[in-house]
Fold this protein.
Amino acid sequence: MQKKEQNMSDTPVWFITGSSAGLGFELARSVLERGWRAVLTARHPEQLEALTAEHGGRALALPVDVTDVSTIRAAVADSIAAFGRIDVLVNNAGYGYLAAIEEGDEEGVRKQFETNLFGLINVTKEVLPGMRARKKGHIVNISSLGGLVAFAATGYYHATKFAVEAISESLSYEVAPLGLKVTIVEPGAFRTNWAGRSMVESPIRIDDYDDTAGKRRQSTKASSGNQPGDPSRAAAAIIKAVEAKEPPLRLLLGATALDVAYRRLEALKANFDAWKDVTLSADFPDVRKD
């Protein structure tokens, strides 16, 4: 018995937000199937009963609403009490929002930022002290291909994910000397509920945007259930990155993500090159390096 307890104490502890469906659920299942320990958090943790029952004491389901700091604090404290530490934090909770920029309703937009950005920040800040004390830990922030490139109708969602990219990159520089790792995950289109029942739409519709944001609203919802990305394979890819000796700062997931990201890089370079002379003209002549 003593040997079994010792082995259990050596297995990594993952803390995953938004574990009740989609990528979060597949990642939780994959972690547990490897014999590791996992704290599965969701607003409705009863949805995780079957998964936690299957894995006994290695799985802990806890209620967390990332917009409610008190639930975050309680869950982190309960996780430490149960497992002693958190080795890998996965900030996965989030959702999409469809609206042209002018169509965005203030309440809906603020809720999106509270979940996708401020929720992620609050969970991270609650977990970081323990990681800093141990000089060990890995923070995985689920961004999106939409954190690198923007399209019509999802501007507010992109804004939250561009912010996640910036927060995560800054954090990576701050915690690297402390022995901590940060990885930003950027999935393309995956077969989850993101474009389906999890998607929120602004009730405001403006006819002038029917051919831009309006069409993309329709195509986004129509894609639900037919996306090329496999959440279980995405989970395996994330685990592989976390286990790597030198994990990536950014991890694109899916062929679509890679293709669009490369095209984004090419478009940026073309833009920069086309305006190079004007760019350089903005410096004082005596310090300019042509």
